[in-house]
Design a protein that fits this description.
Oligomer: single chain
Strand content: 5-15%
CATH class of the largest domain: Alpha Beta
Strand order of the largest sheet: 5-4-6-3-7
Largest sheet: 5 strands, mixed
Order of helices and strands: HEHEEEHEHEHEHEHHHHHHH
Low-confidence stretches: none
Mean pLDDT: 96
Shape: globular
Number of strands: 8
CATH architecture of the largest domain: 3-Layer(aba) Sandwich
Length: about 260
């Protein structure tokens, strides 16, 4: 977001909540979301033991590695807890561990944690190492959340509509490919971008995201998703005032891309 606001970057790819924060801070040339890429949170709850009958209420009184306060992973986690009748205070959530160190902290021999919230590839790595089991998807249980989107300053959209349209058209081709190919085929295509991960693991990760409907078929940023995002921010106490969908989202380019 800083790079877009400063003009260092013309287009940004980030969590959609960033556009709400900057808008509410009074930015004149605010950032507008023009293409939504993912519609599910991408993290999972990993348990110490295999729990095929896991229920969210099982977390009461347990030690869980969460995310930093105010970050989307933690806010989505707490939103799910409350949706299941659990106050976050009823769970021992450790928010002190750096994002890149949570899996290692959970897997350590002296670990006191019962659960951890992990993105891929850490979730799959813990399973592969026999250190944990994925028992729930935060993406599935939180609903269709506009987790990531492409955005640009309003002035850039107004002055460069042909650039944005060409960019969105190319993105839509990628979404079309995802919808028309299997996880195995997608994994083979993207494997060169992840040379430190074997194809079998990439395929497992893609399949997990594919089956939970992570990627949109189109790039249209729906108002219902925007409202859910603000519900989550409000629920976490991070949103003093709701921002208008009509100001922060344009569907013009995404709609043209699917015509």
């Amino acid at each position: 977001m800083t790079a877009v606001i400063s003009g260092e970057a013309d287009i940004g790819f980030m969590g959609s909540e960033a556009s709400i924060y900057t808008y509410n801070e009074g930015a004149n040339d605010y950032v507008v979301n023009f293409a939504q890429l993912t519609q599910r949170a991408g993290n999972f709850l990993v348990a110490r033991d295999n729990e095929p009958d896991f229920k969210w209420e099982d977390l009461k009184g347990k030690n869980v590695i969460g995310g930093r306060k105010g970050g989307m992973p933690e806010m989505v986690f707490e939103y799910i807890l409350r949706q299941n009748g659990i106050e976050p205070s009823e769970v021992n959530i450790d928010q002190s561990i750096d994002f890149g160190s949570t899996a290692a902290a959970f897997a350590g021999d002296q670990s006191k944690y019962d659960y951890t919230v992990e993105f891929e590839p850490s979730a799959t790595a813990l399973e592969t190492e026999g250190k944990g089991y994925v028992v729930a998807s935060l993406g599935t249980d939180s609903g269709y959340v506009p987790y990531t989107a492409f955005s640009a300053k309003k002035s850039y959209l107004d002055q460069n509509p042909e650039v944005i349209q060409g960019f969105v058209n190319a993105l839509q081709k990628g979404m079309d490919y995802v919808q028309s190919h299997s996880p195995e085929e997608i994994a083979k295509v993207i494997a060169p971008q992840f040379d430190e991960t074997d194809l079998e693991t990439i395929t497992k990760i893609v399949t997990r995201y594919y089956e939970q409907d992570t990627w949109k078929a189109d790039l249209v940023f729906e108002e219902d998703s925007f409202n859910l995002l603000q519900d989550i921010l409000e629920d976490a106490g991070e949103l003093a005032e709701r921002a208008p969908y009509k100001d922060l989202v344009t569907t013009e380019f995404a709609e043209k891309a699917i015509q």
